[in-house]
Specification:
It contains no helices and six strands. With about 120 residues, the protein is mainly β. A hairpin with a 5-residue loop joins β4 and β5. The mean pLDDT is about 90.
């Protein structure tokens, strides 16, 4: 049986934090995805979800320094769940997307900067 952990997102960049760890660049990117629908009363609703994305510089992830707030991006990666103990002694959980491929999209949804 094949096991798959894969996610694909297309959304807008809300923030970017670029760091260097062990000689490699890593970007922590907040990506927003939205879905519009009408509720049972017919009122328009826009449901926005925020995703924490980490992208390490490598063969399929380059030009991390070009990603900016407001860019439309395409992310392909895997979901990772983290558990840690906070300063208060309580267990905390977080979810992040580890990007295997990242691209900035232009108006025609082309991939001018394959990342």
């Amino acid at each position: 049986m094949e096991q798959i952990n894969r996610i694909e997102l297309r959304g807008l960049v809300g923030s970017v934090k670029l760091q260097e760890v062990g000689g490699k660049k890593v970007a922590r990117i907040a990506v927003a995805t939205s879905m519009a629908y009408n509720d049972r009363n017919g009122a328009a609703v826009i449901d926005t979800q925020w995703h924490n994305v980490s992208a390490w510089e490598g063969k399929r992830v380059t030009c991390l320094d070009k990603v900016q707030k407001g860019d439309r991006v395409s992310v392909i990666g895997r979901v990772r769940y983290n558990k840690f103990t906070g300063m208060d002694g309580q267990d905390h959980y977080s979810t992040e997307i580890q990007a295997n491929k990242l691209a900035i999209l232009d108006d025609e949804d082309d991939f001018p900067c394959q990342m």
